Amino acid sequence: MAKSIDDLVTDVQAQGTVIAGVQTLLTGLSQQIKDLKTTQTDPATAQKIDQLAQTVEAQTQALQDAVTANTPAAT
């Protein structure tokens, strides 16, 4: 059975909520990593923080790429 237009509207609105949550999560996580690095004096810890930041950046880029790849071009 096909979904009604109202069901599809509800689904799209729910996606918007999830996307906003992911944006907030990634922004907050990135800032926490930046803040943490400013407090470190141990080079080994600073290196781990840099690696963590690179991982978050790579995962964020992968998510952005997936969204872009699956978003139809404007007509």
Outline:
This protein is mainly α and 75 residues long.
What class do helices, strands and sheet pairing give?
mainly alpha
Residue stretches low in confidence (pLDDT < 50, at least 5 long) are: none
- Give the tally of β-strands: 0
- What best-fitting shape do the alpha-carbon axes yield? elongated
Helix content: over 70%
Mean of pLDDT: 85
- List the helices and strands in order: HH
Strand percentage: under 5%
The major pleated sheet works out as: none
What is the overall number of helices? Answer: 2
From the N-terminal CA to the C-terminal CA, the straight-line distance is: 29 Å
Round the Cα radius of gyration to an integer and report it: 18 Å
Walk me through the structure.
By secondary structure, the chain is mostly helical. Helix content is 81%, strand content 0%. The relative contact order is 0.08.
Characteristic terms for this protein:
mainly alpha, 81% helix, 75 residues
Helices and strands, with pairings:
Blueprint: H1 5-38, H2 43-69
Helix pairs in contact: 1-2
